[in-house]
Each structure stands twice: as structure tokens, then as C-alpha cells.
Amino acid sequence: MSIEKLVMDLLINDIGMDDVEVSLNSRLKEDLGADSTELVEIIAALEKRFKIKIPEGVIGLKSNVKDIVDFLNNVKVS
User: Fold this and answer.
1) What are the chain's domains?
2) How far is CA 64 from the centre of its chain?
3) Are 5 and 73 in contact (CB under 8 A)?
4) Under a CB-based contact definition with an 8 Å cutoff, are residues 32 and 22 in contact?
């Protein structure tokens, strides 16, 4: 499964963003309605799923799904 698909599945199923349409261009705050608490949940779920540590500030409320995918591709997760 691609990283893109894994991230979108994580947002929809694990974080519960199933009531909005999630795409690569979806912004966490503006389009998906994430707040700071949900951002922490998203980061924790990504760290657990991909067994990595995401440095503070790399993913924020202004990020979009593509930013997350690009970061994960750059750290070569699988």
C-alpha cells in the first residue's frame, strides 16, 4: 500500500475524519477541521504506524496531506 493511501486511511479511520473528503490537497485545519488536540493525535498515530519520531514543527495545522506524505517519503518510511 502506498504511503499516500496509508496516510489517508489513518486520517479517516484512526483519527475519525470520515465525515469530510480527504485528498492530498486537504489542509489539516481549514479543510479537515483539525484542532491542536487532533494534530497531536495525528502525529502520534503517524509515529506509531511508521515507527518514527516526527520533530516538533514539521507537521502543523497549516500542513496539508501532501506535506505529510512528502515528509514521510523524505524519511524513507514503509
Assistant:
1) 3-74 (1.10.1200.10)
2) 8
3) no
4) yes
